[in-house]
Amino acid sequence: MTPIRLYLLGLLALLAAPLAMAGADPLQTVAEQSGFTRTGRYEEVIRLCNAFAERYPDAVRCIEFGRTPEGRPMQALIVSTSGAMSGAKAQKLPVVLIQGGIHSGEIDGKDAGFLALRQVLNGEAAKGSLDKLVLVFVPVFNIDGHERFKAWNRPNQRGPEQMGWRTTAQNFNLNRDYVKADSAEMQAMLGLINDWKPITLVDLHVTDGAKFEHDISINVEPVYSGDAQMRKAGRSLRSDLVNMLAKQGSLPLAFYPSFVEYDNPQSGFADGVPPPRFSHGYMPLRNRFGVLVETHSWKDYPTRVRATRNTIIDVLELVARDGARWSTLAEAADRRASTLGGTVVPVSYKAGDKSHLIDFRGYAYTRTPSEISGALMTRYDESKPQVWKIPLRDDVQPDLTVQAPAGGYVIPVAEAAWVERKLTLHGIEFRRLHKAIPKAVVEAFRADKASFSAQSFESHQNLTLEGAWKAEPRDISAGSLFVPIAQAKARLVMALLEPTAPDSLLAWGEFNNAYERKEYMEPYVAEAVARQMMKDDPAIAAEFNQRLASDAEFAKDANARLEFFARKHASWDDRYQLYPVLRSQVVF
Fold first, then answer.
1. Residue 476 above 70 pLDDT?
2. How confident is the model at residue 519 (pLDDT cuts 50, 70, 90)?
3. What is the Cα–Cα distance from 368 to 374, expressed in whole angstroms?
4. Where do the domains of the chain lie?
5. Region 90-102 average pLDDT
6. β-strand pairing of 376-393 with 396-403
7. Would you state the torsion angle of the CA atoms of residues 300, 302, 304, 306, taken in this order, to the nearest 10 degrees?
């Protein structure tokens, strides 16, 4: 057994020793009672939520903020010694939301959170922090998945003995749902975020992937994305958290350790900005911090719980120290976001090719063909720690930019009802237009190419477009929605409504009907129409003959030749491949 392993187990034993000597504490988890070999079922969360509120009535409030599809209560603990448990805004205190169990097989956050919470309330850690902040702790986000409980739900993870499942009862991966918000669970979570307006959301996970010595990674945004001043604060937050964890015995990383080339350590790593389907990609669009915490799946459960517990304590200390300043920065970022109209705004990011070598604490390994699969496989020898010198690409720059409209977006009345529900979930400002606007001067996005995904993803058939916004007069009906760009959540508005944004409503397939051709001109009709158009309009005849001469693919495609004329005929559907959402350079 390694010295660091002995140290970690000794520290956990030390933390639990006073409780063991005094007998079972009602606030002690199944994990603690079992020496961190097991984790409890969801009934334990319900019991502990009420028990904490009973023991600390002036500091803890237990709330239900939603119900799962299987009818289970979604519970959160609101914690503060400031008296602001029902009015953080009035007290002007920063709020930190810490969620565990978004993937319920990765359940470290639940047990670490209850341990950390008891220690902070007892004055054993982060002393005084709860006077300066409000903690909203969600022990388990994916509750129905948590109760799909058995061994081997995470075959690439060491402990606990049994655990929950990655996805919900409806098979949604909640950490792909922040923008589209399909699930009842996410809709409840967005309501909690809207109510409490956390300056920081901390999302507690366990990695997949290779074997190495590092036990935890800390990923923060904005660092590369979003508001420039928030990026500076995000870099400091990440650096401080990594340094604090290192002093507590961890080997923390400041990026997610996923190889550029699957299963090949020598390919190194690429940092980046997650799309807003992920928690720490979503929060920067609201000008707030998202912190993704990933313990390493091949560390045992006591080690992972300890690292997660330390992270929670460290975050509370940082929010107590810096949260008021962060809130001031965020309010200024909100004001700046409301002036983004007419400017170029990134909607996705990517690491460039530039890299530098880092020392990475791995193990000796071999890469040989497998006798089972025949594929080249990496095999690690955990008895032989080894420092790898491998590349890290962390020159992250905007990958796709869009010029924001000066005015905003128009949602046609036919789509208004369901889009309104999405906008409301995210707390986005909009208003209903009570008068029709004929021949409005707007911009429309017509696709030159529309590509549907080959298979379903998260119950959607995704869509990507090629095309551009162009000025085009369009009739706007009464009852349409106008979404102004001049608002604090301008970046989130663009993420939802710009058709080429990676997690836009269109990208998730919500407007697929607009890209399905529903009316056709039969070939024998098109033949007659074409002959008549050639006869009546020499310009069309010339254009057709030029296409035949210059485009071999067109010339040999009978359907393309007939469609050339169908598109020019009065019967052609002018809404086909027209994005239903319009943009305006003026405010309606």
1. yes
2. confident
3. 9
4. 26-337, 356-398, 400-517+576-584, 523-566
5. 92
6. unpaired
7. -160
State how far the Cα of 278 lies from the Cα of 348, in Å rounded to an integer.
13
Mean pLDDT, rounded, of the chain: 94
Cis-peptide into 523, omega within 30 deg? no
Domain 26-337, CATH homologous superfamily name and number: Zn peptidases (3.40.630.10)
Query: Can you read off the two tokens belonging to residue 34?
Result: 């079992």
Is residue 464 within a helix (H) or strand (E), and if so which, with residue range? strand 463-476
Find tokens 């589209």 and name the residue: 180
d(CA 164, CA 159) in angstroms, rounded, equals 12
Cα atoms in the Cβ-side hemisphere of radius 13 Å centred on 521: 22
At 520 the pLDDT is: 84
The dihedral through the CA atoms of 461, 465, 469, 474 has a sign that is negative
Q: Cα(425)–Cα(189) distance, rounded to whole angstroms?
A: 10
Question: What count of other Cβ atoms lies within 10 Å of the Cβ of residue 197?
Answer: 17
List the strands of the sheet with 95-99, edge to edge. Answer: 60-67, 73-79, 134-138, 95-99, 200-206, 289-295, 216-221, 252-253
In the beta sheet, which residues pair with residue 350? 397
Per-residue pLDDT, averaged over 147-151, amounts to 97
DSSP-assigned letters across all residues of 194-224? HHH--SEEEEEEE--S---S--EEEEEESSS
- Token pair belonging to 126: 């982060």
Q: Which residues contact 339 (CB under 8 A, 6 or more apart)?
A: 486
Q: Checking DSSP bridges between strand 216-221 and strand 289-295, what pairing results, if any?
A: antiparallel
The two structure tokens encoding residue 546: 């030029």
Which pLDDT belongs to residue 18? 42
Angle between the N-to-C axes of helices 108-121 and 301-337, in degrees from 0 to 180, rounded to the nearest 10: 80
Cα-Cα end-to-end distance for the chain: 69
- Token couple for 57: 């009535």
288 and 412 in contact (C-beta within 8 Å)?
Answer: no
Measured between alpha carbons, how far is 464 from 168 in angstroms, rounded to an integer? 27
12-61 pLDDT tens trace = 544 444 444 346 789 999 999 999 999 999 999 999 999 999 999 999 99
Answer yes or no: are the C-beta atoms of 566 and 422 closer than 8 Å: no
356 vs 177: CA distance, rounded Å: 34
Kindly report the CA angle at 180 between 178 and 182, in degrees rounded to 5? 95
**DSSP code for 180:** T
**Percent share of the chain, pLDDT over 70:** 95
| Mean pLDDT of all residues in 528-551 | 93
